Amino acid sequence: xxxxxxxxxxxxxxxxxxxxxxxxxxxxxxxxxxxxxxxxxxxxxxxxxxxxxxxxxxxxxxxxxxxxxxxxxxxxxxxxxxxxxxxxxxxxxxxxxxxxxxxxxxxxxxxxxxxxxxxxxxxxxxxxxxxxxxxxxxxxxxxxxxxxxxxxxxxxxxxxxxxxxxxxxxxxxxxxxxxxxxxxxxxxxxxxxxxxxxxxxxxxx
Length: 205
Fold this sequence. Notes:
The protein has 205 residues and is an alpha/beta fold.
């Protein structure tokens, strides 16, 4: 289970950063930055937070709403950033992910002195010092929180896109390459929300 072991190496508050949506064929990539001031986290969040992929959709939703409530109460800082499918096509998915991470940090109330980032790649030209942590969403509570925020925020976004572009199953597959998504591409073609640089999408252009 994640804890504050990595955060405790710093004498100041740090942000945990994670992303959602690098693999899908459609929609933006979303990053979240979460600061837990003074490592003071509500007991239910400390017990419930984990790598978002290990949690059920219902559990993720409940944790997300709790974190928003904690943010409103001034006990958490949350920033969310996106990079669009056009930016993904122009930059490549890795650089677009770094862009979304920078935008997430810029949405925080104040820029942190350091950030813990899930993965093994340091983003260039970042506004603060960075430490990468492989499988950080299973090790750091700040990153686990960011993982849940990014995932739920993006899933909700894809449900909105499903209403705009029905027939691709975005409300269920979040833009990933499922059979329903493939069928939608065959029948209806490529939408403005598809990543045209991705090979599976290029076949339908």
